[in-house]
Amino acid sequence: MRVRIFRLKPSRDPRFAAWRLVAGFGAGLAVLPLVGCGLPLLTFQTEEAPTVAEPISTGSIEKRPSSFGNDLGGEDWRRAHAALTVALDPQGNGRPVKWDNPDTQLRGAVNPTGLPYVSGDHICRDFLASVIAPEKSRFLRGTGCKLSGGDWELRKLRTAKADQ
Length: 164
Fold this sequence. Notes:
Elements: H1 17-36, H2 74-88, E1 97-101, E2 106-112, E3 117-119, E4 122-132, E5 137-147, E6 153-160
Antiparallel strand pairs: 1-2, 2-4, 3-4, 4-5, 5-6
């Protein structure tokens, strides 16, 4: 019996170059698992990564204020924040907006003191706020900022003198 072996002549046509590459790569992948069966497993020795100590808080980064003061309860701040939102609105009329909570007898107002401006990706506006309590009242100067469509957050807040 005679066995004929046919050899394909490699094509120089660039259209078939990609197919030759894919076919050769596929054949190599098919043989790869078979080759690995006879080889011993390779093990790699790794060094243990050095442990990194937790960063120490130094207090160098100032925390942003979250409300107009520690004496404001959750409902007080909700009402004051609603007034802040209306007062700082760039489409608003720029007039003071009052808030009050009859349950705690706290009240106050938020008065924008300048035009809105852009700071990075935020819209910001400066304001003067008052918090009037039965025991002690205070005035605060601050800056509120928000992302487009987001809530106003306090960026800066400091006590202001009453005669300003």
